[in-house]
Write a structure and sequence with these properties.
Blueprint: E1 4-8, H1 18-26, E2 30-39, E3 42-49, E4 56-60, H2 66-77, H3 99-104, E5 106-112, E6 117-122, E7 129-138, E8 143-154, E9 157-165, H4 171-174, H5 181-189, E10 194-197, H6 200-211, H7 217-225, H8 234-241, H9 248-273
Length: 274
């Protein structure tokens, strides 16, 4: 794997205005670190990206794993049906990537001369597992949130485990040294302020509540802006990705009924006076 660099803004760049610096550092939940274990070609150990809550630039040569890390972060925040894997690279083969291929570590194709077909080569098998973990910290509120997902096979069925914790977790400390997945679940449930989910929807609702993300559209917008290159029609973009859907007809009908009720009440009062 080619070298990859994470460049974070230095505090000195913000010291020109201490008030601005303070506001920036205290504002919202910011990513402290991202950990991946057995994800794509990040294989066999815990790989860690540490932006330390600063605005950061991820750079590196082609094939160094930039899109793989971006996809890991997207996986933690965006539901699979809306997620755009590998779109950040601008590659044509983004559809070849999914959670299963990342978990198994697909890295290339090899020609089978006997069957005259190409077979995908993998770094891992169905007895392995993968973990994604992101730790966020809100300095202003002094609150921690860790999001984690575990991918594994059970009886040849691909499964996922979702974790939300109000404490600092790490892959090495909290997602290792277990014999079976049921042991991991039991191990996790003993940690205070931690919830384990089987479905993304419940996991999503929990972390959005903890982090103060009121609208699901926020994650949709984040997903779109990860690799945005241009906005053709700004109005359409705002309508599709930023505004909540509103049933105007239903609201008008409700308004009409309420108005009629108020009008009848008013007429009854006037009639009673005379």
């Amino acid at each position: 794997m080619s070298p990859m660099t994470i460049v974070s803004e230095e505090n000195d760049l913000l010291n020109k205005d201490k008030n601005i610096s303070k506001r920036l550092k205290l504002s919202g939940f910011r990513l402290e670190d991202l950990e991946v274990f057995n994800w794509g070609t990040f294989h066999g150990k815990v790989w860690k990206m540490e932006p330390h809550r600063a605005t950061s630039l991820l750079c590196g040569a082609n094939g160094s794993g930039k899109s793989t890390l971006v996809d890991a972060f997207l996986t933690l925040l965006v539901p699979s049906q809306k997620r755009n894997y590998n779109v950040a690279s601008g590659g044509e083969k983004k559809r070849e990537r999914d959670e299963k291929s990342y978990m198994l570590g697909a890295y290339g194709k090899k020609r089978d001369e006997e069957q005259n077909i190409s077979k995908i080569e993998y770094l891992r098998g169905k007895n392995d597992y993968s973990v994604l973990l992101a730790y966020f910290y809100n300095e202003n509120l002094d609150k921690e949130v860790t999001l984690a997902q575990v991918f594994y096979f059970q009886n040849d069925v691909f499964r996922r485990l979702y974790v939300v914790a109000e404490t600092h977790l790490t892959v090495q400390k909290d997602f290792s040294d277990f014999a079976h997945m049921k042991d991991l679940k039991k191990q996790l449930k003993q940690i205070p302020l931690l919830d384990v989910f089987e479905q993304f929807g419940e996991y999503n609702a929990r972390f959005r509540k903890l982090m103060g993300i009121r609208s699901e559209k926020a994650m949709d917008l984040f997903n779109q802006t990860v690799a945005i290159k241009e906005i053709g029609n700004l109005n359409d973009f705002i309508r599709k990705h930023m505004l909540e859907k509103v049933d105007a007809i239903e609201r008008m009908n409700t308004l009409r009924v309420n108005f009629n009720n108020l009008d009848k009440a008013h007429q009854a009062i006037v009639k009673a006076k005379h």
